[in-house]
Predict the 3D structure of the following.
Amino acid sequence: MIAVAVGLGALALTLAWPIPVVLSRAAWPAHSPAVALALWQAIAVAGGVSMIGCLLVFGASPAGSLMGAWHALVPALFTGPIPAEFGVVHLAALTLAAGLAAHLALNLALTAVRAERERRRQHQLVALLGDPMPGQPHTRVLAHPAPLAYCVPGIRTATVLTDGLIDALSPDELAAVIAHERAHLDQLHHLVLLAFRAWHSALPWFPIANRAERSVILLAEMLADDRARRAAGDDALRGALLVVGEGGPGGYGDETVIADADMLAARLDRLDVVPAASSSTAMPRMLVLGASALLLLVPLAAYTAVLADHPAG
């Protein structure tokens, strides 16, 4: 079991630093944002499972299996004493594994509750202050001079535009903005971003959590841009980005996106180098998806290997 714990620890360490750094600096995700988004999700899940598994497997190692540790320790919590083979370091590892798992789960739940509360508040405000846009279902217009656009996900979705945006854009540019926002809603980007925001909230001191969240936000924006490019063309999207970018941070994308100048520049540059109909030619789609699946299978296989009862040593 020690070898399995070391292997899970090495995988967790690899997924916590070198792989995210390399992926965030790579050029191919701009050509295949959907595939890159799947890879980021696999990295996050496999990294968390491996980190917790490393501690869990090491802590359970005196019993020879996870189930063996369960049968040895759970009764001892009520009747005592704790078996002598479990030292302080093993108990500390088990406690840390349970605490880390609970911390991540609670942060995910709290982030989801806060996001849902904010979405309900946004829906109420938009219904109160906005007017329906003729010819555009589930689209509301706010009387505000700043050129802003965002979307509010949920059971009832809403695309929100301002008067300032409508006045500043041509019909094609406006169509690109609406297509972009609806892509966020149709592709459920808010759920993907929710998980990474919860990870960042749970581990704010962890630099990779911030890097991962920013990369995922940018990939979601690229996916929505691709929908807008197919709907209205590159020139229309470029014009819309330039106008909406002047609205300030957070002016483009849904309410979960924190826009900044670097992301805007990356999206504008992508219009010049990545064709609208680009596929994953720069990085074979099946190779990346296979790597994503492998990242998930490795820690699960490690758990399976040490789950059943068997003699220690």
User: Anything to note?
Assistant: DSSP finds twelve helices and four strands in the chain. The chain has a mean pLDDT of 90. The longest strand covers residues 158-162. Residues 88-129 form the longest helix (42 residues).
